[in-house]
């Protein structure tokens, strides 16, 4: 801590780029100066404690991953990243804030679930963290508990149209929760898949002997994502509640979001790196690993599932990001090892723990979209930092390089290179990489969180406990 100057770089925001030097005092940015400015003295660099040379590089606000699941209990096991390992990996990849999901299980009090997550995360995070609240059982008690969330700095909650018997809410429960959310100003986050129908298809496939990971994608057909997305939109329309649909993967679901937005509705969607790059055929259907054979696809089992490349879903996700029919890219980071975790579903795809580990690679994978011309440099910053901050009540403190904002700064080298893989770039607590072999034409060089340098010169300088809990305000993104 002290004073720090990031000089010589190009500051990139959601609305443009400019050559500028960034002065940090303590935890905050205090000035963004023209190169060579003498406003604060003729040799500013000699008067600060630390100088970061960003010549030829981009200077961007720290990434915000608004959808992670550290230590999540799922399918008889727990997500393999702890808050310490997961946030350390986040820092390596240029993400300086996460929003994780506190879980209320059916029959448990909302307050109990939230307290458990504060216990898991408190003192263990390398970067700043906030929470969304999963409401796993909508009843009078949980509806009443929603009234306390805003005071806790938790201004969004999540419902599931999938996973009957675990997190599932029916339409009547969703209606009641959305009515309450509309009154309170809470953002409703929705896992939009028709769970009961999926369970029927999955059982039918299993009974036909179709048990490999590939059939996870077949059971969770795009029609069931489109249908649930439409249903969620109509319930939100009825109640006046803003709606944020998580991990959108089907092009038809994007069409539903776009149609609602064209009517002026407060409906938003995120996608994830896996839905931009990976597919049903290539990943879920993979058989090339000598250890795992036709079970290799379990590495990429997540919900919503990877979609068919032949059907064009990946291209549609990129297009949705360009047109702002999709506003953000989060990871849905929910890692599991193959050994002793994913392999619980060997012989029955229904028992494979759902989740992919991507928190370390989101900024890089999206930057590669800049390199290939899918999105602009400014849109990269908007998707990965600025919009997440606005969507979830953090903007001004996070998501921007401006005086008064937290000094969450990433120096990104467009001339650098990053090779992703288990023995290459990999700090997540997993025994495989979902991104093995991906090559990125760029590199995260320096990561600063609230004025502290977490990553520089290829080394980690952060610590568990640096990260603070973020009390969030109401969404700043409504039309």
From TrEMBL:
Designated name of the protein: Dihydropyrimidinase
Post-translational modification: Carbamylation allows a single lysine to coordinate two divalent metal cations.
Key words of the record: Hydrolase, Metal-binding
Gene Ontology MF terms: hydrolase activity, acting on carbon-nitrogen (but not peptide) bonds, in cyclic amides; metal ion binding
Domain called Amidohydrolase-related: residue spans: 58-453
Family: Belongs to the metallo-dependent hydrolases superfamily. Hydantoinase/dihydropyrimidinase family.
Residues that bear N6-carboxylysine: 158
Superkingdom in the source lineage: Bacteria
SUPFAM superfamilies: Composite domain of metallo-dependent hydrolases, Metallo-dependent hydrolases
InterPro entries from the UniProt entry: Amidohydro-rel (IPR006680), Hydantoinase/dihydroPyrase (IPR011778), Metal-dep_hydrolase_composite (IPR011059), Metal_Hydrolase (IPR032466), Metallo-dep_Hydrolases_sf (IPR050378)
Known cofactor(s): Zn(2+)
UniProt-listed Pfam families: Amidohydro_1
């Amino acid at each position: 801590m002290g004073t720090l100057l990031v000089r010589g770089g190009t500051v990139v925001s959601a609305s443009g780029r400019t050559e500028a030097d960034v002065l940090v005092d303590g935890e905050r940015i205090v000035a963004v100066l023209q190169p060579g400015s003498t406003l604060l003295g003729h040799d500013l660099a000699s008067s600060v404690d630390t100088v970061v040379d960003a010549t030829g590089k981009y200077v961007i606000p720290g990434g915000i991953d608004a959808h992670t699941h550290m230590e999540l209990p799922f399918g008889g096991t727990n997500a393999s990243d702890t808050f310490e390992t997961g946030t350390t990996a986040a820092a390596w990849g240029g993400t300086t804030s996460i929003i994780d999901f506190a879980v209320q299980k059916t029959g448990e009090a909302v307050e109990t679930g939230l307290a458990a997550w504060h216990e898991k995360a408190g003192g263990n995070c390398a970067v700043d963290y906030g929470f969304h609240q999963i409401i796993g059982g909508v009843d009078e008690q949980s509806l009443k508990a929603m009234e306390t969330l805003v005071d806790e700095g938790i201004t969004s909650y999540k419902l599931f149209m999938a996973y009957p018997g675990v997190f599932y809410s029916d339409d009547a429960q969703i209606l009641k929760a959305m009515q309450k959310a509309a009154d309170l100003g809470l953002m409703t986050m929705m896992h939009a898949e028709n769970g009961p129908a999926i369970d029927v298809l999955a059982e039918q496939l299993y009974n036909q002997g179709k048990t490999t990971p590939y059939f996870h994608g077949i059971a969770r057909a795009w029609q069931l994502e489109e249908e649930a997305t439409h249903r969620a939109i109509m319930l939100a329309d009825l109640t006046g509640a803003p709606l944020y649909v998580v991990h959108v993967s089907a092009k038809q679901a994007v069409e539903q979001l776009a149609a609602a937005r064209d009517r002026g509705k407060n409906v938003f969607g995120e996608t994830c790196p896996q839905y931009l790059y990976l597919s049903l055929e290539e990943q879920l259907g993979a058989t090339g690993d000598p250890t795992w054979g036709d079970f290799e696809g379990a590495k990429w089992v997540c919900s919503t599932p990877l979609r068919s490349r032949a059907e064009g879903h990946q291209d549609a996700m990129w297009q949705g990001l360009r047109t702002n029919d999709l506003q953000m890219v989060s990871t849905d980071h929910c890692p599991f090892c193959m050994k002793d975790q994913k392999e619980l579903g060997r012989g029955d795809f229904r028992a494979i723990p759902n989740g992919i580990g991507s928190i370390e690679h989101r900024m890089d994978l999206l930057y590669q979209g800049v390199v290939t011309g899918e999105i602009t440099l400014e849109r990269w910053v908007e998707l990965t930092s600025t919009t997440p901050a606005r969507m979830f009540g953090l903007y001004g403190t996070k998501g921007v390089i401006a005086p008064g904002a937290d000094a969450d700064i990433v120096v990104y080298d467009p001339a650098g290179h990053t090779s992703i893989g288990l023995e290459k770039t990999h700090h997540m607590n997993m025994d495989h990489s979902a991104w093995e072999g991906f090559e990125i034409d760029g590199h995260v060089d320096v990561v600063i969180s609230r004025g502290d340098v977490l990553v520089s010169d290829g080394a980690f300088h952060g610590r568990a406990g640096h990260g603070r809990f973020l009390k969030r305000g109401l969404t700043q993104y409504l039309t």
